[in-house]
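Re: weekly structure request thread

Next one in the queue (418 aa):
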Amino acid sequence: MAAIISILFFQACLIFSDFLVLRQKTMMLEKQKIQVEQFVMTIQKKVKKEGLTLAQAVEKNWTIENNDFYVYITNESSMFLTGYQDDKNILNDSFIQELEFSDVNGSLVITPLKGDMEASVYYFISGILSIFLFFFLLLILLTKVFSYIKTITDGVEIISKESLRYKIPVKGENELSKLAFSINEMGESLYLKNKLEKSIEIQQRTLITNLSHDLRTPLTSMIGYIGLIKQNTDEKDKNYEYAKIVQKSSLRLENLIDNLFMYSKLISNDINMKLVTVDINIFLTQIIELQRINISFKPAKNKIFLKIDIDKFQRIMDNLFENIRKYGISDDIALIQVIENSEDVDIIVSNKTKEELTDKIELLTNRLYVGNVERKNGSSGLGLSIVSELTKHMNGRISIEFKNHYFILKLTFPQNYK
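Done, posted below.
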């Protein structure tokens, strides 16, 4: 666009320059006509006075006497140039005057020196103005392009960080406007896809919650009746073993339903946290004393107070103890220690395991993921997921490490100074 406008402008400048040159030449010719007539009279007088022949007139350099003109002397059979020997053609704006020499008749042709220079200046100015206009228009166009690119960049950032439904202004019909339109379509498509996924996820959570409620009542009754059957059956009876297996499976199913129910409430933020301040050294000591596994506890040297939900923290520790039972080595002693930092407190649980978890650490807190893919230990894959979510709801964070066959889990909570 800038090039086309500049070319058109240059053509217009050329036309205008031609007009100025023609007008200037006309004015100059009128002015020079008097000077030429006087110059011609001077030459005629010298030719007659000195009786010059054509050859003698040619040898005389008349241009020196008047630097404003080229002087040509010709006859019918030949052309001679005085002043400049470069075979130039006689110009159209020259003055021609017949002249009588002592030997032959000839013609005196006088051409003004000025005129071409002024035309060149006009054409040069036209070219400069056209080039200037080209770069000026190009700068304006590039400024608009860069401004629109900045608008598109800012729009993409808003779409990626704030709102998928943000629309980038579509200006014009070029490649950038097509790009802006495509980005808007992509944002809208992602918005609808996320909306559908959230709707499906909410439906799944609702289904899990409803199923948990619906299964709890009959399952509680089953466990109760199985307990009665087991009590009224002799241990030597074969049915006693069957009742024992059914009771174990029912309790496992009840635990799985509780975990599903708890996890669905956690990820949907449909859970109430009753945070209270406790001495974590004393609280952990009480919890560990009730466990039937080998645990070594190293409390912090000072009293440490944390703001936690007692029931939910109990659930965290129960899941960790269950994890030790399933994956730990029975003869090995698990270690729990409390470490006080400047602003927070670490509760570290470590135990030796037979499982190879080197490449699985980052996956262990994912829901339904289990380290033992064969699930021979009855794991549901929700234990550590619930630990992670409960910790977050109590303003804490979790980190896991596997080193020298030791599974190390660290819970970090902000310290509550009392």
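The chain is about 55% helix and 15% strand. Residues 175-231 form the longest helix (57 residues).
Next request, please.
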